[in-house]
Amino acid sequence: MQRANVLGKREKEVVVWVEEIKDGKMSPTTQPGCYRAPTSGFNSKLPSAWVPYAELMRIERPAGLYAFYFPYLIGLAYAACIAEPVVPSLEHVVALSGILLVWNIILRGAACAWNDNMDQDFDRQVTRCRNRPIARGAVTTVQGHVFTAVLCLSLIPILTLFPASCTYHTGAMLFLFGLYALAKRVTYYPQVVLGFPFAWAIFFCCAALQVDPFGPRVLLPTVSLFAANVLWTISYDTIYAHQDVRDDVKAGVKSMAVRFAHSTKLLVVMLSIAQVSLLILTGWLTAMSPAYFVGACAGTAVALGSMVVRVDLSKPSSCAWWFHWQFWFVGGSMVSGLFGDFVLRTGFH
Questions:
Q1: What is the pLDDT of residue 35?
Q2: How many domains, the chain?
Q3: Could you list the residue ranges that cross the membrane (predicted)?
Q4: Is 268 among the domain residues?
Q5: CATH number of 171's domain
């Protein structure tokens, strides 16, 4: 009788999983206990012992990399626009963007490894996350910490390519990323905490181009752009968190998706209005060209508005789609507006 009850419960769970897959609420590869070794893509070419570490770095999941990289592109373009008296060449800015891509692949890997280690108990209770390497036992807690340390140390050779002041900004970012992993245990606003290390890329890139982000000439517009990026992170990460909101409630994970479960779209609208207003303020304070206001301000407003209207928060697949593509829509608008202004200022020189 007991065995029959267990089987009956299991059958009901399977029915629920099948229905959620049909409704787009769960991917077949995220079913509980359904880990499958990669058979295609980059990870499938690696030695089997390396695969869990590549998964820990999210090598084959580029959306998270966009979250790290786009603020650097925004910061780089912004710093190039306001740099005085030496204006960087377009070639130098492009070269730095390539270096920063490598930087962010490593930085993102370290942040993910740390986060997964801290969240392993939560991850085992969340459908989408329970097959992560540490949660499923493919990487131990100690191995995860060692791997995180190795990745952080791997940033040092790249850091030597930048001015010394970038070291302090790197330390601040690493501290804040570490703090984020703990925030969801004590506050419903971990997305706010996450926004700070992402947006700190603005300060880093200013320093990389020999611009003091806290200097009196640029302090206000730089802080305004920083704040706009914090708000952007809060918006898209709250939408992203809606993928797991039911499991998060059961597991005791705090997030703004849980806190504002029934008013997320209103929240994102308010955040988006504030974000665009801050972008306009940044442009006004730095005398940006119309290219900036059309691309970075109007383009961002349209992209954010489209996301709010079209995302279906009840479907994880919709949340995941918009999380992925909004980086290109929103982030791409900001980058194009800033780079457009930079090109107009320098005349391609």
A1: 80
A2: 1
A3: 66-87, 93-114, 134-156, 162-183, 192-211, 217-236, 266-285, 291-309, 321-344
A4: yes
A5: 1.10.357.140
Range with the lowest mean pLDDT among 141-145, 178-182, 250-254? 250-254
Rounded to whole angstroms, the Cα distance separating 114 from 148 reads 6
Tell me the residue type at 201: A
**Residue 97 and residue 240: Cα distance in Å, rounded?**
26
pTM for this structure?
A: 0.88
Q: Say if 292 falls within a structural domain.
A: yes
Residue 324 lies in a domain: yes
pLDDT tens sequence across 5-25 = 433 443 443 344 434 444 544
Concatenating the DSSP letter of every residue in 78-97 gives HHHHH--SSPPPHHHHHHHH
Instruction: Look up tokens 């999941």; give the residue.
Output: 61
Half-sphere exposure of 17 (CA within 13 A, CB side): 16
First to last CA, the chain: 80
Range of the domain at 183: 62-346
Has residue 1 been placed in a domain? Answer: no
Question: What DSSP string describes 174-208?
Answer: HHHHHHHHHHTTT-S-HHHHHHHHHHTHHHHHHHH
pLDDT at 74 over 80: yes
pLDDT (tens digit per residue) in 257-267: 999 999 999 99
- 113, 64 Cβ separation under 8 angstroms: no
Q: Which residues contact 294 (CB under 8 A, 6 or more apart)?
A: 337
